[in-house]
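Q: SET domain-containing protein, please. Structure only.
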Amino acid sequence: MDSSTPQWLHWKQKGDTKYNNGNYLRAIKCHAPSEENERVWWLTAKALYGLRRWRECAACLEKIGGLYAETGERREVLERCRVRVREEEGEYDWGGMIEGVRAGDGKGDLDCADYVGGIEVRPCAVEGHGRGLFTTRDVEAGELLLCEKAFGAAFAKDEEEGEGDEETMRVRAELAMGVFVKLVRNPSLREGFGELFAGDEVDEQRDLKGEVVVDDTFVQSRINYNAFAFPLLTSTSHQQILSHPAGISTDANNRGIWLRASFINHSCYPLVRRSFIGDMMNFRAQADIPKDTELKFGYISCLEDVETRTEMLAKYGFRCECQVCIAERATSPEKFKRRKEITKMIIELFEKSKAVGLHTYLDLLGQIGETYIVSPTIEPRHAVVVPIINIITGCQSSALHLQVIQLVQLLLINLGFEFRVTQDNFRVLRWGYLIDELVMALADLRDAYAALAQTELSRDAESVAKKCYLIMCGEELSWEAAYGAQSERRKGDKGGSEARWATEGKWREGGGPN
Ligand SMILES: C[S@@+](CC[C@H](N)C(=O)[O-])C[C@H]1O[C@@H](n2cnc3c(N)ncnc32)[C@H](O)[C@@H]1O
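A: Structure for SET domain-containing protein:
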């Protein structure tokens, strides 16, 4: 230090350098020893904001406000702190967040706080499952259980610009580098990151003080087990899934890591659904869930067959023994063969536009059902989804509203839902397995009831459809554009449902039951 430099200025300059390098905690330590200097407090407040310590940041700004004249910039940060505190209580401006993602030019780095509702990390009772996320109270289907900002995220370039595997490698490397730099600059974040599952045999280095060394092993071992790809907006990928033949989202090449969400274990029959608005991940309950239940969700697509799922999960170092896997493994090869044959028969009927009545399709769908050895509440009957969706589309084109209603109800039963329908009331009693196609089918149910002037039933069907949409996409605001009165599908475009058939054969207009 130059002897002419006052001590407060020396600490301030040191703190500024640390702050500019993103080393917030050290910045606070440098700034704090100074007297109640306006600029020092302001930098301290900004450092606290960077560390996501909103309440302390607000207290700091209020302190400056009490000592010095107000400035617009400080008022703005104080207001942002207040918004963050409301977010911590579960009050989010979903519309503003969607706008933020759209304005982000391919990046979804949102300035939002985390919300944790009715869940906590606990050790699992099953040996080898480590820790898991459990409900601390009864929760209802659709409830927001977690909204968490990524600890680190890397965003893929546009499809055209990206170069397949090379782009995937770039995104992975960017994520690892971003996490590494963050941990090196902010020692206070190391403990939380270090808590993540890192495999059983990770060889971590310790320094002379016994503290873990932030190196490639420390970062990469945790990224391997906890990071995953995510879309910028799940509402967009929901539409893509419905309109792409193979049901694959083209918008999930970004990669991120979330600390709290990382404690959730896998099941092929998930109880929660994860969705994204930028780098904010939402977990919503997919059913009414009692207190003290372990929440699980699908690490991989649960629509794959059990061999593929087992292979995909092997990279996480475990074999899934959930209810679906157990049932599927116990099903004989003959039953799988029969399932395939019947599905093929249904496709052929469609392709040849044979004049068959709905009862023929219902009979064949029933035969698919007989190839399952347990109830759909245990193992959802995925094999009926594509046929039913296509038969619904066929019925719609012939204005067969009663048949649409019958088919959507059949789909619900095959996915493990239980419901009650009276003359003026349609209510879900038990939530089953949620898939993107179900939202579309429930919107069709709403339209079919409306066409038959069953207004109350149409309203109830829409409310169930909207709840499913909320669970799948995280928010309801985009519902109107996707399925509302002004949406393309209400104007005649059925959201590409015809293309769903293309996985096995091609659906043609005019096919289906008569
Ligand atoms: C993202 S972590 C989940 C949290 C982890 N249980 C913990 O204690 O930190 C993923 C790891 O959890 C374990 N795991 C997750 N789901 C499992 C399941 N269904 N059966 C057995 N182990 C599971 C596996 O070791 C997996 O690699």
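A: Brief note, in case it's useful. Residues 245-250, 495-514 have pLDDT under 50 and may be disordered.
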